[in-house]
Amino acid sequence: MKKGLLYTTLFLAAGAFMLLAASSCGNKKSGELNPMNDTLSTLRNLDLLIGEDPDNPENYFARAQYHFDAENPASAIVDCQKAIRLDSTKAKYYLLLGDLNMMVRKPDETKACLQKALDLEPENIEALLKFGELQLYLKDYEQMFAYVNRALKKEPYNSKGYFLKGLAYAEMRDTNTAITSLQTCVEIDPEYFNAYMLLGTIFSNRNNPLAATYFQNAIQTNPGKGEAYYGLAYYYQMNRQPEAAISTYRNMLKVSSRNPAAMHNIGYIYLFDLNMKDSAIFWFNDAIRADVRYADAIYHRGYAYELKGDKTAARMDYEAALRVNEDHEMARLGLARVGRSKN
């Protein structure tokens, strides 16, 4: 039986990656002057700072960073624009405003902000890399490589530059060159989570055992990220290691306790690999409780009931799956097998 939707390939589409926003210049860096100390990090204290010194652009920039981190782009944009009106000579203000415009999906405004930052500081590495990210988002690979290579010429050991090149090559389906760039990235920065994830995905798509190593490295780098466990578990699942896959999905649920895809996939393994129908139904139930519109989980629970000989329960699930997704072909075929309800 053909397998259902189990896994969405990670990181191979720049649009799904929140490029600029995910690696914001607005995030504080070690060694960088922080306009507010730890005791003044709340919104209320930032408001007080602005009230006491309303002409200080750094206060508005600090509050814009606060709103950015809180994923409140509208308020952050207002504060960032105020900082620029007070002082239009700071590249970092335009970089943050560029991130915010990207967050609200305004690439033209993002480009204008990044260009202004480069006008102020033509060799600003962060601005060059963000311009490269923007071009990657727009899928203008030639321009993307031009900006990133300019940054790498100035800073040859910049891990982010190599990651961006790896991501671009992956999108261009030049996976061998992508691997080279990504391996350089993790050699420079052994804690680069996203590079390990993309390497794991590439090797997983090749059914290469190195996939497990890279996903394990990602887990060690950031054990709180569920997607690394998912990538590793899926690799095991697709390479006939059902026990290892179930164990890894369970570990994923320790950090992402209500993830319906992990629950569904455990059920799928119990059903199709281990022929344990009751255990499969248990996990499909959990997946459906986590997401009542999970059509694949509803269908597969119905199929488990069908295999157990319970056509009534199977019919109910096939009908429910079709109510959620009227184009679910497997549910339609299942319903044809068990027959429609007479009611």
**Helicity, in percent?**
55-70%
**So what's the overall shape?**
elongated
Q: Note the total helix count.
A: 19
Order of helices and strands: HHHHHHHHHHHHHHHHHHH
Estimate the mean pLDDT confidence.
Answer: 89
Tell me the total number of β-strands: 0
Largest sheet: none
Structure commentary:
There is one protein chain. The chain is mainly alpha-helical and 343 residues long. The chain has 19 helices and no strands. Helix 2 runs antiparallel to helix 3 and helix 7 packs antiparallel against helix 8. The N terminus is likely disordered.
Q: What's a concise summary of this model?
A:
It is built from 19 helices and no strands. By secondary structure, the chain is an all-alpha fold.
Architecture blueprint of SSEs:
Elements: H1 19-22, H2 43-52, H3 57-69, H4 73-86, H5 91-103, H6 107-120, H7 125-137, H8 141-154, H9 159-171, H10 175-188, H11 193-205, H12 210-221, H13 226-238, H14 242-255, H15 260-273, H16 277-290, H17 295-307, H18 311-324, H19 329-338
Helix pairs in contact: 2-3, 3-4, 4-5, 5-6, 6-7, 7-8, 7-9, 8-9, 9-10, 9-11, 10-11, 11-12, 11-13, 12-13, 13-14, 14-15, 15-16, 15-17, 16-17, 17-18, 17-19, 18-19
Structural features:
343 residues, mainly alpha, 70% helix
